[in-house]
Amino acid sequence: MIAFRIDRRSGMATYLQLVQQVRQALRLGVLEPGDRLPTAREVVEAVAVNPNTVLRAYRELEREGLVEPRPGRGTFVRRSLSRAASAGDSPLRAEAVAWVARARAAGLEREDVAALAASVLDESFPPPELPPPFIPAPRPPQN
Q1: What is the pLDDT, as a whole number, of residue 131?
Q2: Whole-angstrom distance, CA of residue 111 vs CA of residue 67
Q3: Which residues of 60-88 are buried (b: 16+ CB within 10 A; e: fewer)?
Q4: What is the per-residue pLDDT across 4-17, written as a single tens digit (0 to 9) for each?
């Protein structure tokens, strides 16, 4: 079961934080197809958010095809985003844990590590090229 955390200082909408945490749990294999997400009431009690915020997050996840509501039973995971290389017990994760430990030992704070990782990710995974801008065809002259 996933336990949500809300960072009210992050500047990110609360429902997006919930969506992001579910996606991350799906990538890491914490949530798998068939698992039930906490009910809106359970999330509201745990993190003190509006029930509509939880429902909005769950609708977004449903729109993405990641979860499905089952009336009277809850919201269930439809598909995983997990890959063997990103599983909780993978060698890559162990390397990442060791790297973060070295970064902390070197005196880096969480924000420093996040900035460094983000810059490496941006270099390694450049954003996709944007399509050319829409330029309307010229109108034919009117008589």
Answers
A1: 67
A2: 32
A3: bbeeeebbeeeeeebbebeebbbeeeeee
A4: 999 999 999 999 99
**Residue 125 identity:** F
The SS3 assignment for 33 reads coil
C-alpha to C-alpha distance for 31 and 35, rounded to whole angstroms:
6
Structure-block tokens of residue 141: 């002259």
DSSP class of residue 129? P
In whole angstroms, what separates CA 60 from the centre of its chain? 11
Bridge-partner residues for 68, per DSSP?
76
What is the reported pLDDT for 130?
66
pLDDT of 92: 85
pLDDT tens track for 14-32: 999 999 999 999 988 899 9
In sign, the C-alpha dihedral spanning 125, 110, 58, 88 is positive
Tell me, what amino acid is at 48? A
Comparing 81 with 105, the larger pLDDT belongs to 105
127: three-class secondary structure by DSSP: coil
Name the E strands within the chain.
67-70, 74-77
